[in-house]
Amino acid sequence: MPVYSVKGHKEIINAIDGVGGLGIGEGAPEIVTGSRDGTVKVWDPRQKDDPVANMEPVQGENKRDCWTVAFGNAYNQEERVVCAGYDNGDIKLFDLRNMALRWETNIKNGVCSLEFDRKDISMNKLVATSLEGKFHVFDMRTQHPTKGFASVSEKAHKSTVWQVRHLPQNRELFLTAGGAGGLHLWKYEYPIQRSKKDSEGIEMGVAGSVSLLQNVTLSTQPISSLDWSPDKRGLCVCSSFDQTVRVLIVTKLHKI
């Protein structure tokens, strides 16, 4: 029997994420879901039937298919954000403390996967992967009132980038999974200064750079899901459309 069950959405649920349980992130244990019905809902397993937050389009607005959701900024009891990615390239950052939309942008291609480098720290970096083989890394430390967050983009695969996962033991390393069956390991390098003042003296972020460390082709089919082991550095697992689950080891990560 499930310990918690709820009829959450009217249409298919594309994405789910959790925070606050298992000692990851401060505050209440919560689950976030994103659906084709255009809504993003936050659930507390201790509260039956109703979501604790519901982010949906205002009346008259087009409902976009939400493909990915991610928690972040859960570094104390009060602070917490949810980031959602949509089929039209929209990325929206919802502040759960103030129940407000904090930031939004559009990356021109459907957003397949979003992940903060750590959920349980003050927002540091966010990676967004998309159709057409591109991913974007946003520096989340400095938000400019009009320009938002600084970012760097990289053309990674010749096809959709289905997933991104940061290495639990080193947040500057992350793995992307591609529609052509490849995995790419990347390293993010910070700039000398992470922020600068614009012409009006307002702080704005400075994006770093991304370099490819290694890549491997595992299948002729897309790699749809992947995860790192929190205990054993470099141990990971991925699933593919060829009906295969593969367990992999990435060596020498401690030397990077």
TrEMBL record:
Coiled coil: none
PROSITE patterns tied to this protein: WD_REPEATS_2
Pfam families: WD40 (PF00400)
Domain of life, source organism: Eukaryota
Record's keyword annotation contains Repeat: yes
Keyword annotations from UniProtKB, A to Z: Repeat, WD repeat
WD repeats, residue ranges: 31-44
Residue spans crossing the bilayer: none
Alphabetical list of InterPro entries matching this protein: WD40/YVTN_repeat-like_dom_sf (IPR015943), WD40_repeat_dom_sf (IPR036322), WD40_rpt (IPR001680)
PANTHER family assigned: MRNA EXPORT FACTOR AND BUB3
Name of the featured protein: WD repeat-containing protein 92 isoform X3
Organism: Sapajus apella (Brown-capped capuchin)
